[in-house]
């Protein structure tokens, strides 16, 4: 089943399946592919196709026979969701990944891009985190179940490359944000949670906002539209066994990010920190040299990206996801 990668951009007319095309990352990738002239995009909502159901996934692949696959579907959430539901984060993600990859392999899918998360790296990895830091130390315990599932996905891609010679690849994004994010009070990641919290505080006229932790951890954030650009760039230009880090190469403290959010929403009250709540990993900054050396860099600055995300949040307040 070996397929030699041509080294040329992927065919815009070929059937391309985006798994998770309604999610934060998948919807951005869909928009990017449409904008770049892809004419045969395929997507299914979770109600139309439950990727945890193996037989249904195999039937779908047999019917659609995609040439390319972007595996952006996953069960995701913040510290609270990961800490409270590790069984679901492990089981659901393992089943989604295994079913999609096995079905793609059965159909001889030529190029598959698996999207993981920077939480795959050890909690205390040397900063900035290089791709070769994988499996060199202990994971952050607040999201280790999700991380293990994503590591299994990377190894799945590597196994297909080794055993079947298919040019499948993996990308590990840093923290993502932007239009289509989950702004629910219990299921969101830190940046959309901050946007909702500060905007609601502004509307209510309350004098202070309380955030989890100390505000001292440093985080790197990448706008999802930049992530989508990176995904197509990798599909067009990259072929390698090792996962590729995707980020900006710059970070900021949660306290600094909270201040940017407060400014963007127009909140003028005080910010307090609940240090009884967990901080998570002290710092997480990716080394993005591999991606930069391939000719790609992020374009959307954090302050600009937060402002546009606040605008999107307000425009779509009536239709936001409320589930965790």
Based on the model shown, name its key terms:
40% helix, six-stranded parallel beta sheet, 324 residues, Rossmann fold
Short synopsis of the structure:
This protein is of the alpha/beta class.
- CATH level 1 name of the domain at 16-180 and 221-248 and 285-300: Alpha Beta
What is the H/E order? EHEHEHHEHEEHEEEHEEHEEHH
End-to-end Cα distance: 40 Å
CATH T-level topology of the domain at 16-180 and 221-248 and 285-300: Rossmann fold
Query: How many β-strand stretches?
Result: 13
Strand content range: 5-15%
Rg, rounded, reads 19 Å
Shape descriptor reads globular
Give a topology summary.
Layout: E1 16-19, H1 24-35, E2 41-42, H2 54-64, E3 68-71, H3 79-84, H4 86-106, E4 111-115, H5 144-164, E5 169-173, E6 175-177, H6 190-204, E7 208-212, E8 218-219, E9 221-223, H7 224-237, E10 244-246, E11 252-253, H8 254-265, E12 270-274, E13 283-284, H9 289-293, H10 302-315
Parallel strand pairs: 1-2, 1-3, 3-4, 4-5, 5-10, 6-9, 7-12, 8-13
Antiparallel strand pairs: 8-11
